[in-house]
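ARCHIVE CARD
Drawer: 12
Card no.: 0347
Subject: one protein chain, sequence and derived structure
Cross-reference: see card 0346
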Amino acid sequence: MEYITRCHKGADLSSVRRRAAAFLDSVTGAQDQGSTTRQSWITKWTTLGDEQCIIGDLKASQGDSNEAAEARLCALTAFEVARRLLHENEPQCGEVTARIEAGIQCLEVALAKVERVTIESWGYTELLAYYVPAGNHALPAPAVICISMEDESEATLLARLLPAVTDRGMSLLVLSHRDVSHPARGLSQTLLSSCLDYLSGRPDVDAARIGVYGEGLSAALATDFAASDRRLVAAVCDGGLWNWARMQASVAWMTRAADAREEGSVTARRTQLIRRLRCPVLVVTGGRGAVSVSEAMKLQIECIEERIDLDLTMARMIKSSGGCIENFVTSDDCIFGWLNQKLAFSAALPAQPNDLPQISSHVLGH
């Protein structure tokens, strides 16, 4: 089976992403062939990325910044596939990460497709973030505040998301979890509200169409942020499940026993957390996230009964002898397709989630 063909001069981003998604789905079982096969795949995807970087440089020298940027986005997708195949402590991880960071720097400095911005936050601190513009003064675009997982940088998240949103007409503000996560109560929400203030003040952003997306433990930050700032119109978050699980664990520890309250009381407390949100919610389960599939399904059933606008998606994970690999292409397309739909809806009609009776479930794989 041929997993990758050499990317030629006329290859486009959509075809590279289709090949990446098909390859990741094919990894199951095949990875059991051993480290030699895995190293061969890593080399092929890294080479593919290097080729696209060369094409990008050539297009840039010819003055074609759009094609140069597309080649760089193809390269970022290829490098992300290679990064997923690598084990955490392998020396090649640093090399692939360096390639990804160089790609972001090229898009920022040479091609001016990405901006590095500083956001002042109520005198507490200054946040550094990446901003990807999609609109202009005449036609402001919706925007999404994206927060990385706790163990990943904002550059790593941006490199993965850029190819997924390039044709969606959606601006991104990408932040690091470590920069906005704070133990002081309410400070994380204050920092994130400053980011929303920043976006709302930009003439190329539609202030009425701003959402938030948090990965890993940042999904809990996104929930608290959406509950505290009603200007958000969509949230990809944990629906309050992380805080609820932590609260349950605290009760069990203090009583030295499992919480013996009736199921109805437990359900009421879990639903109380999600009622604080006044915008549509997408909860991502499975994978490297902090949300249990079983708890998320219970929450969705409760939301259907309460007529709360909550959707559920499961990360597409491929099992192999080396662990699990996420098909990030499929997952990102689902998440940003949902965001695109919700942000577009908010432009046509003010969102009133409690009046929406239909709750759909998006499941990526089985």
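Annotation on reverse: The CA atoms of residues 145 and 196 lie 8 Å apart. Strands lie at 115-121, 125-132, 141-147, 171-175, 205-214, 234-237, 281-285, 310-314, 317-320, 323-326.
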